[in-house]
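Lab notebook, bench 4. We co-purified these components, and the gel suggests they stay together. Before we commit to crystallization screens, I want a quick structural picture of the whole thing.
Request: model the full complex, all chains together.
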Amino acid sequence: MSQSVSPGIPEASSPGILHGWWPNPIFRRYVRSRLRPQALVVWLLLTLVVASFLFFMPRTLALYQGRMPIADAERMPIFFIMGLQAVILFIFGTGNVAAGVTAEADEGTLDYQRLSPLTPLRKVMGYLLGLPIREWLMFAVTLPFTAWALWRGEIVASTWMPVYAVLISSAVLYHLTGLVAGTVVKNRRWAFLVSIIVIILLYTVIPQAAKFGLVYFKYLTLWPVLDEHMLEFLPRTIRGPAHLASLLTDKPDARFFGLNLPEAVFTIFSQAVLSLTFIMILWRRWRKAEAHMLGKVWALGLFAWMQLLLLGNALPLIGSGDLFPARQIARRYGAQMMAEPQIGEALAMIGLYGLVTMVLLIVLILIITPAVDDQVRGLRRARKLGWKRVPWISDAASSLGFTAAMALLGGIGWTVFAQQIIGSDWFRGHQLAAWTGPVFVMVLLGAGLCCQTVLEARGGRTLFLVCIFLGVVPVLTGGVLGMVSKASLTPAAWLMGISPVSAPFYAAATMVPTTGFDDTFSLTIPTAFRFWQGITVLSAVWLVVLLRQQHRARRESVLGPVDLFTKCASGTSAPVPPSGLKDRG
Amino acid sequence: MRIRCAPGGSFLTVMTPATPAAVPAIQINDLRVDYGGFVAVDDVSLSVPPGEIFGLVGPNGAGKTSTFRVLATLMEPTYGEVKLAGIDIFEQPENARRVIGYMPDLAPVPSDLKVWEFLDLFAESHGLGTGPERMARIGECLTQVSLLEKSGVFCKTLSRGQTQRLVLAKTLLHRPRVLILDEPASGMDPLSRRQLRLALRNLAADGATIIVSSHILSELAEMCTSLCVMNRGKLLASGTVDEVRKALGRAERTLTLGVLERAEEAAAMLGRRDHVTGISLAGERLVFQFAGTHREQAQLVTALVQEGFLIHTLEEQKSTFEEILVEVAESGNTIPSLPPLPKP
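Here is the predicted assembly.
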């Protein structure tokens, strides 16, 4: 680095290639701080050593112990190296993104970035690509090993390109997840932990739901594409067993309603939509630090889109039976046992769809519901501007209407899913009750409104306690009670029925009359479901009435006992807003 | 300079006759900031013309930092309008940020960057030309705050005062037209403070408007061309130090008079004069409060001499600005004496 007359200041600030290729100040800031030679050399050497080991060990074993042909032996290290790349990008990269942005918030230097005239999008991109720059270089160090294995292993580009495209898009998605976690969580250590937990949940645990009909979730991971191309990566000499070959070759394309898409294309598309949502969250936060993560309309749109994706991926697989776990198991083990989908698994899948929809609904309610302070601020602003009420899409407005709209959409999606499954050829002897739609909507509406009203009126802490004591404790206690004896199954079913978590499964069991199950299942669960849903609906109505009373009281406490807005509307005493006052709600 | 203040509406304007037609550098209308039930800034209106060094004074919790954070586009108020150099900061935040230089209280610096790297990050964000041009500007700013020799060291190795100076250099980088400095002198040694004062005066002379808060009030009084006192979210008074003192009803000072003979008679005579209160007698020394002008004070002394009193000393003692602020903070926040001012 050349020195100018000023000690320590270089004559120009573009000492490296990475500094120059993208003129984003935040990116360049991290290129400087995270690529300092001392630390970088250590990390790159470490990566080189591990990658070398993972490359040479399986290759040598295959070549000298397995006596494989050279082209086959060269293929052996590919998955090991890919695993290392995944660890570097997914775990180290994401953790550093989350911790890095929280560190800035912790130090207080994030405010400087808020003050800079860069657009929110440039800031987001700067952090997204700058914070994990060292991990991307470490990834680059492993690429020669991959390139060698692909070249000498004679793996064609159409095999490895989709896999690496999805690997990179997954990494970007995970980094965005880390960035969101780091931006939302205030504590540096928690940000790291939360980002890792969110990633494990989003991209490891939740995708397991794909095995039970929620196929969309698997497209958030690398697995579908890897599954699709697994066989071409494996050495030809170990593709032996016929059922393994059929398992690996007989893969359907990604189905979205009537469309057949390559797995890679649909995966990248699915991840892009989620990435866009994360970018929207970050954009809102950079634009206004106090803003909700998502606006109300965006949340409603996202919810509808998720329903569309869940249905679009699942419905085309019903006819062939590929949606059902029994068929998947049969395929995996090459056996014919349990090849026919069972009504029990259909009920479980319908219940799970309802539960996932309910969880998504509650997550979005948590995002869009204003805190009491926000509501008061919104009222004050409205009063100042002489408005009749807070604009309905502003962050400060009640989320009651949007909760109801999302519950309605979720109920419709859930009903369509259940109708398509039960109405399929696999379950000819079964029929969905006529009032399934309204009941499903009621289940989601009851849980959603209770959650929303408690959150809006009493805050997150009260909601947390309610969730623990009404959502979790009854399920756990009922589970333990059910283990005692057969006689205790009935009280256990009643107890578990208190929890909204069990409601979707109880609803599925109630709406699809079945035979062949014992009395607990066929009699107790529907009765318990009707009773507890009745209680839930009454509670929801009562809470909504209370919330509206609280809204009125709050409006009067903020605006005074006289309703200025009514007067304003009638023209008797219109408060004139000072010129130039703007709303930014 | 004229000062106007409406006690109820918390409206203040500082008007400099030299620039009557200029667009105010800082224009705040009906600004309110709430934190839950706590009103941090209560319907404040304020107008500061270009070239002023405007001090914002008040005890902790007065609402200074909240006001500064709103001005710096870091916080959204409950409502209100803010224009900096004619730019609405809520409508055009990116444009507003080009004219703002903000230095927060206890200004932090990143631990993983060197001094020049820290400055280059913001020089580039503000689009200050090519690499060499930016480096030249960084050199200028570091020279201005006497940190040039530290440009190659990591920010985390700087002392508190050096960190403050570095952040000041960062604030000055893009030649902002409105400087918002929250406690800029905290942690600085006396020499650095003097440099800061000089730097701010030079900037103001070049047309920049500076709004600054400090707990070192005497220093603020020296530095600022005008002051404004804030307490419990409301603006109380504005003007020069003396004008503010007067506006706050603290224009009176303590006079001590040394009289050789007939001290009791002199006390009786003082008791009959206007503007005189709280007379106490200790031997030959008469101590009393006087709220009149200096001319009236001279007339008082002349009258005493004409009555034949032998005066050998006259000492004047003004209450310090700190004392006034302590009183303001403890006593409440209304100023009954000033006439209401119509809002623009």
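Chain A touches chain B through 49 residues (CB under 8 Å). Worth comparing against the SEC data before the next meeting. Confidence is low (pLDDT under 50) at residues 1-5, 562-585 of chain A.
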